[in-house]
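Exam prep: given the inputs below (a chain plus magnesium ion), describe the expected output before reading on.
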Amino acid sequence: MREPHETLTFGVEGLDRLFRGLMLPAHHLIVIAGHPGAGKTTLASTICYANTLRGHKCLYISFQEDRDRFLSFMDRLGLNLRSAEASGLFKFVKLPISFDIEGTVMMLNKLLSSDRFDVLIVDSINALLEVVIDNASKRSWLQNFFYSLPQVFKGLVALIAETPYGLEKLELGGIEFIADAVLLLKHRVEEGFLTRVLEARKIRGAPVTLAEIPFSITEGKGFEVWLPTVLEEIGREGGKLHLPCNLLKKTLDHMHRGQVVNIVYPADGECIDSLMLALGIVVQNDLRAILISYRYPPESIRESIVGRLVIQGIDGSMAEKIVNKYIVFRGINPFSYSISQLTARELSLINSGDFDAVVFHGVEIPRHAVESSRHIRELYNQMNYFRERGKLVIRIGAYTSRLSYRLECRVSDALIRFRYSNSGMGKVNYRAFIWRRNEKPYIASSEEINECVDEVIELVNTKLAVTQHPA
Ligand SMILES: Nc1ncnc2c1ncn2[C@@H]1O[C@H](COP(=O)(O)OP(=O)(O)O)[C@@H](O)[C@H]1O
Ligand SMILES: [Mg+2]
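Solution:
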């Protein structure tokens, strides 16, 4: 049983923070509204499930769904309500839609007094009130029965309200007047892609400045939101990171967790050295990294790094082993998502493991997929999200325009820009501008760059020796 001082939870990282106050031990009534398919059942079940994990009891009343279908559906989203049911913390009851609303409410009351529940979900209030034709009686049911429900059973009540397609208003006899919060789930099509947002319509007792919060519903992960980070809440720089070669030590000295390194190369060249530098930083500090490529399938990137190590005489399977030890490879086609869903997808991947570093590869591609002001906003928010969590970010991409280069500079703590240099023999060499925030750039020659890459390879060799012959 829930102690009176205990707070309930949304079960969605971010929502508890944003709507602090709503899940307080005070007895609240929230309305989750939206079109069919918007995610109401998913959010309500998430609230239900997360609280059963804390030992609270949840009663789920549905007028629409069959128990088995409902449980299987939620199971696929990562909500193991069957086990909560087995441990007696979750109860799903399907009530028939009846013309006798008094009878239905009586059944509901009986269920509520049969046990001590902390959370009650009614899915949906429309189904319940369907039989009440006139608005005045709907209003009277809502005011007289549901309004006092949270006080009566001393817990959280979440009423699900269906809004008709094409309409974003609730036609439920003034339900928004009796609720402490109205969360409207919307889904719309942006540039051909599904985008989901949660609109905070009314929040009592919490200062909410964000009107629309993008969210996603994914297999195994369920309901996830992504909130902009509050700058004031970001702590000091994270732990110190060392650089893998003398050139970088000399120019950048050191880095910190939570910082951003940008590696830029000419648009008509693909510089493998940039991947080697990223590998070097990761290996040097024993970080576990996830590399997300917008450009190549994950296998190709892995192969190009492994191939580069093999050229230096490292055994193929050993090279593969060491690369896999430090980096997990993923690919995302940014054109298969809307921008907010792209961000959600990335964060979902990044949060799927305990990674210390995130390497984005081919960053010029999503940059051109969206309007620039929108991109700046997403990028800025994302960098702060990582900063807050102390994840090193390495962004690798081609130079495509002065504007985007300058933008990348503004979110970077260090930048390495490869440029062609004329060797005079018709052969292309690279030189590199190496720049650390608040300082003047250093221009490194191709010899210096090669030396740096050699040092990285030496470092990998050392790690291999340790792996093969542990002390
Ligand atoms: N396994 C799944 N993987 C990804 N998306 C899913 C999965 N199951 C359901 N969804 C998405 O969740 C939505 C349904 O959510 P639901 O909570 O039932 O909506 P509502 O109750 O508002 O009608 C659908 O739009 C569907 O696309
Ligand atoms: Mg539903």
